[in-house]
Design a protein that fits this description.
- The structure is a single chain.
- By secondary structure, the protein is mostly helical.
- It has seven helices and four strands; from the N terminus they run H-E-E-E-H-H-E-H-H-H-H.
- A hairpin with an 8-residue loop joins strand 2 and strand 3.
- Helix 5 crosses helix 6.
Length: 200
């Protein structure tokens, strides 16, 4: 199976969702391996650029003048959770409609946190999405602690100071996904989701 990497460092979940939806328009048989990122990243079209450039705001390392205002006045964890969960569910339904197999995992445990900033609607979205996620935890770690960037680093592949995989790490994860599929250790999320949707 040929490997293609469409990951961009520092982008958010809206960008990831848009990448997948763009790829789906090509209607090519594909195994989608999606790693949802930190939920507090915010993306928008920057009107200062004529090419419709997307910008990503990130807490702690703002690369745009709007970052400080956004995180002081507009940002909320509840909104982050709901927005990310809704995008993941949309992408899931579109992948199912296109009959494309997919595997998903995530970087940010906050997306499934239920200790604070919750609503019944958010809990319902978590209930739908969480069983579709592949966990990269290893025996020496608590479940859900290790993400695939840490896992790749432990297997000798460098990551950046901001915890981003380089190309070799992305390919390593892809090969590991194929290896787990071939050995029957995992199944695609699409197989589980079809059954879930039919029986819901």
């Amino acid at each position: 199976m040929p490997y293609e990497c469409h990951a961009w460092p520092g982008r958010g979940n809206f960008f990831i969702a848009n990448q997948v939806l763009n790829q789906l328009t090509q209607k090519e048989p594909t195994l989608y391996v999606i790693n949802w990122t930190w939920i507090d990243r915010f993306e928008f079209v920057d009107q200062d650029y004529t090419d419709g450039r997307w910008e990503t705001l990130r807490p702690g390392r703002n690369n745009h003048p709007h970052g400080d205002f956004y995180y002081r006045n507009l940002h909320s964890e509840l909104s982050d959770k709901l927005h990310s969960l809704q995008m993941i569910k949309l992408v899931t339904m579109e992948l199912l409609a296109a009959q494309q197999p997919f595997i998903m995992c995530y970087m940010d445990n906050l997306i499934f946190d239920q200790r604070w900033h919750t609503t019944p609607a958010m809990l319902k979205q978590q209930e739908f999405v969480k069983p579709l996620m592949l966990h990269w935890s290893m025996p020496d770690y608590e479940p859900d602690v290790m993400n695939w960037a840490v896992w790749a680093a432990q297997h000798g592949h460098p990551i950046t100071t901001s915890n981003h995989l380089l190309e070799s790490g992305h390919e390593l994860v892809f090969r590991q996904v194929l290896n787990r599929l071939q050995r029957g250790k995992i199944t695609t999320a699409s197989e589980f989701a079809v059954h879930k949707v039919k029986t819901a």
